[in-house]
Amino acid sequence: MGLLSIIRKQKLKEKEIRVLMLGLDNSGKTTIVKSLLHKDIKAISPTMGFNIDTVNYGGFNINIWDIGGQTSLRTFWYNYFEKTDFLVWVIDASSLHRLSENFTEFEKVLQEDRIAGCELLILINKIDTYNGDQKKLKKHVVETLQLDKIRNHKWQLLCCSAYSGENLQDALNWIVRSYENKYYIL
Ligand SMILES: Nc1nc2c(ncn2[C@@H]2O[C@H](COP(=O)(O)OP(=O)(O)OP(=O)(O)O)[C@@H](O)[C@H]2O)c(=O)[nH]1
Ligand SMILES: [Mg+2]
Known about the structure:
Layout: H1 3-14, E1 16-23, H2 29-36, E2 50-57, E3 60-67, E4 86-92, H3 99-110, E5 119-125, H4 134-144, E6 155-159, H5 168-183
């Protein structure tokens, strides 16, 4: 068995997936994680540092690193890239005027060498507040974040709501399926 096959086999055996959750302040990162854990989501304050939570899904421990998104905290994001399997980028569907700010920060993060091997999940959260056409919204996000130009990462874009739980399971499912596909040995 070659070295690559051994690493792949080991990764699947460990059943640990590391997810880094980033995005602008107030986008709903912490609320999404707490909602996945069926915890109280009524009184969540802005994250001043970071939280680590583990969600069990599909036989995997998904370790989610949720980092505060306020402007003054964004330089700290760069301390958390090591060993990341997935980057989840959260956008607020009720603050679409901040999409260009999203692009500026997202583009900077994508330039990081340490996330070279990681896959991207972009979540348009708070979709419960959005009354427009979701297809058009997704197209707008793809264009503004220039997702079609991404060549070196596999990516997925989903609308979700931490409040209603809409698409949160699909997000976990995509993560686990992508992880298995990546490390599956024929
Ligand atoms: N309507 C609606 N509001 C949401 C949803 N998710 C989060 N919120 C609200 O958005 C606000 C910000 O949520 P947080 O989870 O603190 O956001 P965050 O991205 O962790 O913010 P930082 O920690 O500052 O980076 C809170 O008032 C939440 O109740 C959602 O799906 N729908
Ligand atoms: Mg937070």
